[in-house]
Write a structure and sequence with these properties.
65% of the residues lie in helices and 3% in strands. By secondary structure, the chain is mainly alpha-helical. Among the domains are: 45 residues, no CATH class; 65 residues, no CATH class. The chain has a two-stranded antiparallel sheet. A two-stranded antiparallel sheet has the order 3-4. The two termini are 82 Å apart. It is found in: Membrane.
């Protein structure tokens, strides 16, 4: 307990002054090697004191001393080298582009959390390094300060999926900073950590939850396999369908060979093997039973996925309103409902499951987003097209009604009436039996005439029919409504009007209005693509916290990779916010109390923006310490000037008082000389003194 208080006292002393004076005093009495030995000794004493109940563990004391040593190491290179753990880590060698690869897991060493993993027997310095993080904050006087702090144990439960989502989806504000949106998500991330901690106490749910990505992949693959079977074999009630038994066996052996080769190369081996097993099941069980089997597996797997989704996000503990507002949760429930309909209602419902590809692929999602993002502009342009169609329909109804003669293909009555069909077949059989030709030329001409009379009909007898005709045929034809109307003769009086009508519809509706709609969609998709490229470029070349670009760190002592990993690590800032919220207020240090006050007021000025301490350090103490020393000297100088000004004012008042006294004494002497109380010589002398 005494050592813990002593370590906290030394930490407080180091926080009170940021120059090297306190560091030199501490290191004068405590050598760097001795300090490191104390840290290791405190770590090793933990196992010896496990059976004894103590208020503060030895490792906690050692952690405080390690944090103190990290602060002292800024002023002592020997101590800085001694604190480096003896391990060969090639951190920072991977490019930051791996942070954007959605298929790589873990993301990269730069995105790697500094929160503790499973604690095993290891080097004490390495152990404390995993439990320690550092950030830079901005004080009220706009000076920067580096903070070394312990990572709270709850930060261990932050999932990699949440890190990836926050890192890739955090938006910039009007000033180009991501800090605002990131700070808004810290409360949600903190709640997720607490839920993940509770989830560890439920082993079964945790086992399903941490494999959520696997269940999602299985569901999509099963949906694809089911739809392949339906496409090739439906309807399957009468037999095997489009592929015979020999073809099934040949495909089975081909896919089996491909799966063996894929398993040896550890890539793309499971899909061919699954297809081979499905074909074998079709051969032995039949298509219907195979679909029932795959549909049941898909439904069970999707239910497991929903359980995993709920386990990861804690959806049920958020309340019914949060569940209803969670679009992703509702989407997965709709998927389960569709799978149920496909299994128990009709197989063709499985085709809807293929839309899951839009949910899984960002590119397809952007294609849909290109239509919905500017939906208002598209709807207004479409409304303009409807108005123009309405006007052209009115003109056609008033002046060109006779030109709306449409060719139609009516259904033959012989195919519509089953009794008539049977009678026709009997007639053909009787003709064949009697040797009479049933395809008489007269009969053929009669049928052709009847069909010719019914191949055309009027399509603009009412205004509603005109609107439907222009809307249906006019917008679907490349040349407009003129392509489907009657071809007029040049000798007709309304021929010029018809030419103007067709050209106006073509240029206004087809070329201008429809291309406006297509242009909005294409431009939106291009904007989404450019935004995605710009976003990826920003993630590669810009610090998430301060917003400084990569080229600012060229030819500096700290590289850009080291800066975003050590100085401005996004997750270290999250861990510090969590530490401030979890820690008792009475145990706050100076910086923690300052940041807690700023967080309470939703003030983000403590985040460093467009500045970093590594870019302003010039010597051993750094420019920050020099500025503080100059500020201290300026304050002391102002105090001296204020004191001298006060003394000068007092002296001035004394001189003024003495001058007034002398004036009063001279005036009295003059009056006394005038009354004869003094000799003339004395009076004259005093008068001279007064005059002088």
């Amino acid at each position: 307990m005494i050592r813990d208080n002593a370590s906290k006292l030394l930490l407080a002393l180091m926080e009170s002054r940021h120059d090297s004076e306190n560091a030199e005093r501490i290191l004068f009495n405590l050598r760097p090697r001795e300090l490191v030995d104390v840290i290791k000794k405190a770590y090793n004493q933990e196992s010896e004191c496990e059976e004894v109940e103590v208020e503060v563990s030895s490792r906690e004391v050692g952690h405080n001393i390690y944090i103190l040593a990290q602060q002292l190491a800024r002023h002592n290179k020997v101590l800085q080298n001694l604190l480096k753990p003896q391990k060969n880590i090639k951190e920072g060698e991977e490019g930051i582009s791996s942070m954007l690869n959605l298929n790589n897991r873990p993301l990269s060493q730069m995105l790697k959390s500094t929160a503790p993993a499973e604690v095993v027997e290891q080097d004490p310095l390495e152990y404390y390094e995993q439990l320690t993080a550092q950030i830079e904050i901005v004080r009220e006087d706009r000076s920067m300060e580096q903070i070394v702090f312990p990572v709270h144990p709850i930060c261990e439960f932050l999932t990699e999926e949440s890190k990836l989502r926050v890192f890739n989806t955090t938006e910039q504000d009007e000033q180009g900073s991501k800090v605002t949106h990131f700070f808004e998500q810290t409360s949600f991330l903190h709640g997720e950590m607490e839920w993940q901690k509770k989830l560890r106490s439920m082993p079964v749910l945790y086992w399903f939850s941490r494999r959520m990505t696997l269940w999602g992949t299985i569901s999509f693959n099963l949906a694809v396999f089911i739809n392949l079977i339906i496409a090739f074999f439906y309807p399957y009630n009468s037999g095997q369908g489009a592929i015979d038994d020999s073809m099934l066996l040949m495909l089975f052996w081909i896919l089996t060979g491909l799966s063996v080769l894929g398993l040896f190369s550890k890539q793309y081996g499971l899909q061919p093997l699954t297809l081979a097993l499905i074909l074998r099941s079709i051969y032995h069980l039949g298509i219907g039973n195979t679909l029932i089997l795959l549909g049941s597996l898909n439904l069970i797997n999707k239910v497991v996925f929903v359980v995993s989704f709920v386990g990861n996000n804690g959806t049920f503990i958020m309340g019914y309103k949060a569940m209803v507002m969670d679009v992703e949760f509702l989407y997965h429930l709709a998927y389960v409902l569709t799978s149920t309909l496909g299994l128990f209602a009709h197989e063709l419902f499985y085709s809807i499951l293929l839309f899951d590809l839009i949910y899984r692929e960002e590119t397809l999602f952007n294609v849909i987003k290109s239509v919905t993002r500017n939906g208002r502009s598209i709807l207004l342009t479409a409304l303009l097209a409807l108005i123009l169609v309405y006007l052209f329909s009115i003109l056609g109804f008033l002046f060109l009604k006779e030109d709306f003669i449409m060719e139609v293909d009516p259904l033959l009555q012989i195919s519509a009436d089953p009794q008539h069909t049977e009678a026709s077949q009997d007639f053909i059989k009787s003709c064949s039996a009697d040797g009479v030709s049933c395809t008489d030329e007269t009969n053929i001409n009669t049928v052709a005439e009847e069909e010719g009379e019914s191949n055309t009909e009027r399509a603009c007898d009412t205004l509603l029919m005109c609107i439907v005709t222009v809307l249906n045929h006019g917008l679907r034809n490349g040349g407009g409504v003129g392509d489907v109307l009657r071809k007029p003769s040049k000798n007709e009086p309304l021929f010029p009007a018809r030419v103007v009508y067709d050209l106006l519809f073509y240029f206004i509706v087809i070329i201008i209005v429809l291309n406006l709609i297509f242009g909005v969609i294409i431009d939106t998709f291009a904007d989404l693509r450019s935004e995605k490229q710009k976003k990826e470029e920003v993630l590669k070349t810009t610090c998430f916290i301060c917003g400084l670009e990569r080229d600012k760190f060229d030819n500096k002592t700290v590289s850009f990779e080291e800066h975003i990993k050590l100085e401005h690590n996004i997750w270290n800032y999250l861990y510090f916010i969590v530490l401030v919220r979890e820690k008792n207020q009475t145990d706050y240090t100076g910086p923690e109390s300052y940041v807690a006050h700023m967080i309470k007021n939703n003030n983000l000025d403590w985040f460093p923006r467009m500045q970093a301490m590594s870019l302003v350090v010039t010597d051993g103490d750094g420019e920050q310490n020099e500025m503080r020393m100059l500020q201290d000297k300026l304050v002391s100088t102002m105090k001296v000037v204020t004191m001298l000004t006060g003394q000068l004012n007092e002296l001035k008042e004394q001189m003024t008082e003495q001058r007034k006294r002398r004036q009063r004494m001279g005036f009295v002497d003059v009056q006394a000389g005038a009354s004869g109380a003094l000799p003339p010589s004395a009076a004259g002398g005093n008068h001279q003194i007064y005059k002088s």
